[in-house]
Specification:
The complex is a heterodimer of chains A (209) and B (652). Chain A has five helices and five strands; from the N terminus they run H-E-E-E-H-H-H-E-E-H. Chain A has 209 residues and is α+β, with helices and mostly antiparallel strands. Chain B has 652 residues and is mostly beta strands. Classes of the chains: A alpha+beta (209), B mainly beta (652).
């Protein structure tokens, strides 16, 4: 009886974990983050997506337009080819997916915990890096050639939320791929919680064989 | 009881006085319009879009103008047949070829009749065509760019008035010559008119895939004047109808001499049969000289090709191809109702409006009910083709448009009114004055199988006291009239550009979403385009100097140029590097003898410049592009001929 119950719970949480890991694959097609710029002259919208391996306009020419606007304030143009993170990120996520699959295969709580910790670490490092990237673009301006100079003004977009930058209101929020990551993380946590609950109600189960 | 009665009387007096005050306080306007109602119906709130595009011919301006309905707001002039220095149309090296004709560079014309391309007899919003009356030509305007992309000259034609009208699926764009002329061109006495002069009906084929118009064939017709045309639809889809006047064949004082005959003709042409005859080799190839000018899609450079022959069909060689329908008194417009059954001949001097029946016409042809035969063209008996006459259609009926409820609307120039009548019963049901002297009228889709019968626009020739005076030269105007109810109702007066003749209307939804916003820089295949500021440069080639100039907010690259000499021919090749919506840049250089340029995002345009004296010349952007537009400027140094100042320029 106990054996069957134990295996059922283990199965469900394992499936949930598998789903979470596989879902992460979507970040290769969905954008992670979206920065939107709003101004009266842009009723059609202006914005960019940060994807796992590139930065691109929401509409075909948006990045070009944003770069052209940014030259007024001396911001350096955003060239996705020159951002090393965009080359590293696909491998980091691939690593997480492979490790996640290993966890599902071996299915040990300790491995799951370790994987979640690694995931958390990657997420924190990613967000800090993103913040630093925004800080760099927003602060390190070419004041020599900037056309519009506002004392003490920086143009760092918010990590999360909205901010008025001269005539533009900048909004920064996770895009579909970002939500997928949160969701994957949530599923893995759920799997862990289920395992822990199961262990509590069935002492001795869930331990390493 | 008595007291009560008195009270009632008192009350009615009070009400009467109250009403009188109200009526005095709210005086009716001149035409008795309920102004509030009209204002609401034509009001398009700020930021909202009009329901319809209206394309108005520019008449003597040679251009096409674009308006919104019901607001009557003007959006744009599309330059077509007349040069347009404000954007360089006809002045830039890329657009000059659009003006080539067998008479050389013709910088102007008189454009009368816009006509939308159709699919299944319904305007589809792909192209609009318009005629050049003076130097016979037909232009095709692409409605994704609102730009003239092709102009085809028509040989053996003089006064290309009855043009361009399209068949149900835009298989053909038809055109007729107003003046009959010696064919081929010849030096003959004018008095030899009857012997030497002929008319032509032209059939231009549109190859939509190749984006090319070609003159497929012409039909040689008697030496009358040919006035207007319309293609059939539905059952009459294989036919086209042309009005004639001056069947008297007069050459002088036509106002009298061409008004003698009781009836002239509507020529009914079975174009499908004519095309078949051409394919069967029944046409004669005739020498002719005419031009086709077109804008290359990838380079956006206009090219000209000279054509040397045209195929001509003689009616005597193709029996059953063309018939004459007698029609009273110098008919002007010929209009086919949405069902394709009724053909209205607008006899401008007639007191009645004849409506021919297509099915009766077929029967008359079958029964050979001919009055006579002229040059191989059978003249059908009037009574055998007539569906009926509209009595009292106003004086000087010119044109008829249709709604989607079985009514026709005829403009009457002399009595200055629109007369509404029932197509099936020919009964007049309503009339409304126009201010003043209406020529054409337009209902969106009103000459198609599917009219959007909400408004009719009166296109008036005379305005006199309708607007603030502007000296002797006054505007022409449109009047928007609500035709959604039983009674027509004047809603709005609005001045128009040039002299509007015909117009076309189409729901905005069929065009606006496919409107191009920018030209993609990557796809710019102009041989002198530059894709980035790094490629900006100045190159000397003998006495020619090519300046590869770029513009992006808010500077030109290069903006300091030296080494130009008097005697040089300088080509400013300006590429607008912007890829942003609604950010054109302009270009102007001091003393330019031609024009300025307006360059759209991603486009390259070239201005030829031959400086006459040594100096340092300023150049600048003419389109307010950004907050620092006023800083968008540069200098070009011009040294005396023979000096040894080398070519230098700054880069980025």
């Amino acid at each position: 009886m106990t054996t069957s119950k134990k295996s059922t719970t283990g199965k469900t949480s394992r499936w949930i974990m598998l789903a979470g890991v596989l879902l992460m694959g979507l970040v290769y097609v969905l954008p992670l983050w979206k920065i939107t710029l709003e101004a009266p002259q842009y009723p059609e919208g202006l914005g960019m997506y940060i994807r796992i391996n590139t930065v691109e306009g929401v509409e075909a020419n948006n990045l070009n337009q944003i770069n052209n606007l940014n030259h007024y304030i001396g911001m350096k143009p955003i060239h996705p080819d020159t951002i090393p993170e965009l080359r590293i990120m696909p491998w980091v996520v691939l690593g997480l997916i492979i490790l996640g699959l290993l966890v599902v295969w071996r299915w040990k709580r300790s491995l799951l915990t370790a994987w979640l910790s690694l995931f958390t670490l990657v997420a924190i490092v990613g967000l800090v890096d993103f913040y630093k990237w925004e800080y760099d673009y927003g602060h390190n301006l070419d004041m020599e050639n900037a056309i519009i100079k506002v004392p003490d003004m920086n143009y760092q977009p918010p990590l999360l939320g909205s901010r008025q930058l001269l005539n533009f209101k900048a909004h920064s929020y996770p895009a579909a791929g970002g939500w997928v990551i949160f969701f994957s993380f949530g599923l893995a946590v759920a799997a862990l919680v289920m395992e822990m609950k199961h262990e509590k109600s069935e002492p001795g189960s869930g331990k390493d064989e | 009881m008595k007291f009560l009665k008195n009270q009632k009387v008192l009350l009615s007096i009070v009400i009467f006085i109250g009403l009188s005050i109200l009526m005095v306080a709210c005086p009716a306007t001149k035409e008795g319009i309920g102004t509030d109602d009209a204002a609401v119906k034509t009001y398009v709130p700020p930021g909202e879009h009009d329901e319809f595009y209206a394309f108005m011919s520019g008449g003597f301006s040679g251009q096409l103008t674009v308006y919104g309905l019901p607001s009557g707001r003007k959006f744009r002039t599309v330059p077509v047949f007349s040069v347009h220095p404000e954007n360089g149309w006809g002045f830039s090296e890329e657009t000059k070829a659009m003006f080539n004709t067998s008479y050389g560079f013709v910088p102007w014309d008189d454009a009368h009749h816009p006509e939308l391309s159709m699919t299944e007899g319904v305007p589809d919003g792909r192209y609009i065509f318009i005629n050049a009356n003076n130097t016979p030509r037909v232009a095709r305007i692409d409605l994704s760019q609102f730009e003239t992309v092709e102009i085809l000259e028509i040989p053996n034609s003089a006064g290309n008035h009855g043009s361009p009208f399209v068949t149900e699926n835009t298989e053909y764009i038809i055109a007729s010559t107003r003046f009959s002329v010696p064919i081929p061109e010849a030096d003959v006495p004018i008095s030899s008119y009857k012997e030497n002069f002929k008319g032509t009906l032209s059939f231009i084929k549109l190859d939509a895939e190749a984006e090319e118009m070609s003159l497929d064939f012409q039909i040689l017709v008697p030496g009358y004047n040919y006035d207007l045309a319309h293609a059939g639809k539905g059952p009459s889809r294989d036919w086209a109808f042309f009005t004639t006047y001056n069947t008297e064949e007069a050459t002088t004082l036509l106002e009298v001499n061409a008004s003698r005959n009781d009836k002239d003709f509507v020529a009914a042409v079975n174009w499908a049969k004519a095309a078949e005859a051409v394919r069967a080799g029944k046409a004669k190839e005739m020498p002719a000289k005419y031009f086709r000018n077109y804008m290359d899609h990838d380079t956006r450079i206009a090219h000209s090709e000279e054509k040397k022959t045209v195929r001509v069909l003689n009616p005597a060689d193709v029996p059953g191809m063309i018939y004459f329908l007698p029609t009273p008194k110098s008919p002007h417009g010929v209009d086919v109702d949405p069902t394709g059954e009724y053909i209205v001949g607008n006899g401008k001097l007639a007191t009645v409006l004849p409506v021919h029946s297509f099915s009766k016409m077929l029967k008359a042809i079958e029964n050979e009910a001919f009055e006579t035969v002229i040059n191989g063209i059978p003249v059908l008996k009037y009574d055998e083709v007539l569906a009926g006459e509209v009595q009292d259609p106003g004086l000087g009926p010119l044109h008829t448009e249709f709604d989607n409820k079985g009514f026709a609307y005829t403009s009457a120039f002399i009595t200055s009114e629109i007369v509404k009548w029932n197509v099936a019963t020919r009964e007049v049901v309503d009339r409304i004055p126009t201010y003043y002297s209406i020529g054409h009228l337009m209902i969106p889709g009103g000459d198609s199988k599917q009219p959007w019968g909400k408004y009719v626009v009166a296109l008036n020739k005379i305005t006199k006291d309708r607007y603030l005076p502007t000296g002797p030269e006054l505007c022409q105007a449109g009047q928007l009239i609500d035709i959604s109810g039983d009674k027509m109702k004047l809603l709005l007066d609005f001045p128009l550009d040039g002299e509007p003749h015909y117009a076309q209307g189409i729901p905005a939804s069929l065009i606006k979403d496919k409107s191009v916003r920018i030209f993609e820089l990557e796809k710019n295949n102009h041989p002198h385009a530059i894709k980035s500021e790094k490629q900006a440069r100045v190159e000397r080639d003998g006495n020619d100097v090519h300046i590869y100039l770029s513009s992006i907010r808010s500077h030109f690259t290069p903006d300091n140029i030296e080494g130009i000499k008097v005697g040089d021919t300088v080509y400013w090749h300006l590429t607008n590097l912007e890829q942003d919506w609604d950010v054109p840049h302009g270009f102007a250089v001091k003393g330019a003898n031609n024009a300025e340029l307006l360059v759209m995002p991603g486009e390259t345009r070239t201005l030829k410049w031959q400086p006459q004296r040594p100096d340092v010349y300023p150049f600048y952007c003419t389109d307010f592009c950004s907050a620092l537009h006023q800083e968008m400027q540069g200098y070009v140094r011009v040294s005396p001929a023979g000096s040894d100042v080398p070519i230098t320029f700054n880069g980025r």
